[in-house]
Amino acid sequence: MQKLILLLIISIFISQSPSVAQDDYFIIIGKINGLNKGIVSLATPKNDSTFQIENNNIEIKNGFFQFSGKLNYPRRTRLIITDTSTYYSDWFYIANCKQNLYVDFSQNTINVESDSDVFHEDKITFSKFNDSLYTIKIRYYEIIDSLLEIKQSKVKIDSIYANISKLSVIYDNYLENQILRNRNSYIALTELYHSIEFGKQDNFKLFELFSPELKESILGAKVKNRLLKFNYLNVGSLFPSFNLLDTNFTSKTLNVINQAKYTLIDFWFTNCGTCVKQFPKLNNIYSKYNNFGFQLIGISTELKKYQEEWKNGLIRYKPLWPQFWDVDHIQTSEYGIKFFPTNFLLDSKGIIIARNIEIDELLVFLEKNLN
Fold it and tell me: Please, which contacts does 303-309 make with residues 24 or more away whose CB atoms are closer than 8 Å?
C-alpha cells in the first residue's frame, strides 16, 4: 500500500512537469525512500550516441530526482548514488517513455522498482534467471581456484569446466524459448548481444529467430556486427590487430606476422588465480623454446584504475615474455573474450591453429614441431 501511494504521488509530480516524453525521448521520475539528498546518475556506455542524457549528475531534492534523454532502443542501466559514499543498484531496463522509479535505500543497498513495461519484462524473464546462473558459475570458479593448490586435481577441474559449459547450454536454451515467445523483444536481443562468445555458432541461429524488423534495427545491426567480429577468432582465421600499451605505457600495435614460427597469445589479469598459476610452466616453456622459433605474448585486461596492480603483478609473478595491456579490456570485450585465461596459438602467418591449448599439450606440440 505504501509503495502504491508513493507511485501515485510520483504520477502527480509527472503530470505537473512541463516535459513531455516522445517516441524517441524518455523521462524518469524517481522517489527515494531513505535518502533525501545526494547526487544520482545513470550508468551509461562510453561514447555511445544511442544513449543520451541531458544531465547525468542530478541533485536529489527531498527524495525526488528526474532524468530526461533519448534512446534509440530500450537500454540496461543502473542507479549510482553518491552521498558520503557511492552506491550502485542492480541493473534494470529503461525505455523511451515516462516511467516512475520507486527506490528504496536501506542499509547501503539500493532496490529499484519501476512501472515501465521493459522493466517488468526483464524482471519476469531474465533478471532472476541470470542471477541464479551467475551465482552457480562464481561458485564453480571458487572451487577451481581451491583445487589448483592440490596436486593431481586436473580431472576434477576438467569436470567442473564441463559443468560450466553445461550452464552455457542451459542459458542458450532458455534464451531461445524467450525469443520464440516474443520475436520482437529488445530485452532478448540485448541478452543475446551480451552473451555472444567467439566461435559460438549457436549465436547466429538465435539471431535468425528474431523478427525481420528487429534484425534490421540499430540494435540488430550491432548484434550482427558483433557476431561477425567474434567469428574472426575461429581456428583458421587471421588473428586480428590489437592496439595496446607496453610496460612503459607506450602505445603499440601488436604484430604477430613473421615474428616467430609459432606464437602463443595469452589473455589474463592479475587477480585471476588460474591465470597466474600457469606462469611458472610458461616461463619454463618460453626459456626452452624462445630461441627456436617460439614467441609468447601476454595481454592483460586490467581496468585503468588497477594500473598499479598490473605493474606489481608483473614484479610478483615474473613472467619472462613480453607483456601488453588492453586498458579496461575494451578490445578484448569487442572480440568476445570473457573467460580467463584464454589463449590462441598462431603460426608464422598469424593464422590461429589452436584455441585454449592446455600447457601440457603446448609442450608436446613444441617438442614435436621445433626440435
Answer: 303/327, 303/328, 303/329, 304/328, 306/270, 309/270, 309/271
Distance (Å, rounded) from C-alpha 287 to C-alpha 116? Answer: 59
CB-CB contact of 323 with 298 (8 Å): yes
Summarize pLDDT for 150-166 with one digit per residue, the tens: 655 666 777 777 777 78
Q: What are phi and psi of 5, to 5 degrees?
A: -65, -45
Residue 252: pLDDT over 70: yes
CA triplet 220, 224, 228: central angle to 5 degrees?
170
Q: Which CATH fold would you assign to the domain 243-370? A: Glutaredoxin (3.40.30)
Query: What angle (nearest 5°) sits at the alpha carbon of residue 175, between those of residues 206 and 75?
Result: 95
State yes or no: pLDDT of 51 exceeds 50: yes
Residues 130, 133, 136: CA angle, nearest 5 degrees: 150
Q: What pLDDT does residue 144 have? A: 73
Tell me the per-residue pLDDT of 295-304, one tens digit each, with 9 for 90 and over: 999 999 999 9
Rg of the chain over Cα atoms, rounded to whole angstroms, equals 24
> Domain residues of the chain, as ranges?
2-115, 119-233, 243-370
Q: How is domain 2-115 classified at the CATH fold level?
A: Immunoglobulin-like (2.60.40)
